[in-house]
Design goal:
single chain; mainly alpha; DNA polymerase, domain 1; 4 helices; binds FE2/S2 (inorganic) cluster
Length: 96
Amino acid sequence: MSVGDVAGKKIVTIEGLEKKGKLHPVQKAFIEHDALQCGYCTPGMIMTVTGLLIKNPSPTRQEIIDGLENNYCRCSAHVRIIEAVQTAAGEMKGGK
Ligand code: FES
């Protein structure tokens, strides 16, 4: 994405998800499910998942897979990532 595409728009980075020392539910779920191994893909995964859950708070497993189709983990953590998304979705809806 070019800078011109986001000119004048609010931008949130992964550092902006944490509020007052509390991790965002997606960040917590990724840690809880051991869904991250490297520092390369994880920020993109978490930001994509956060956007996905804002647009669709109750995604199906297939919708999660489709939502992450442009994010790749070369460590084979995709199953744990999907589980983390499901946990985060539940927490963001007020459950656990
Ligand atoms: S955790 Fe980053 S490539 Fe797998």
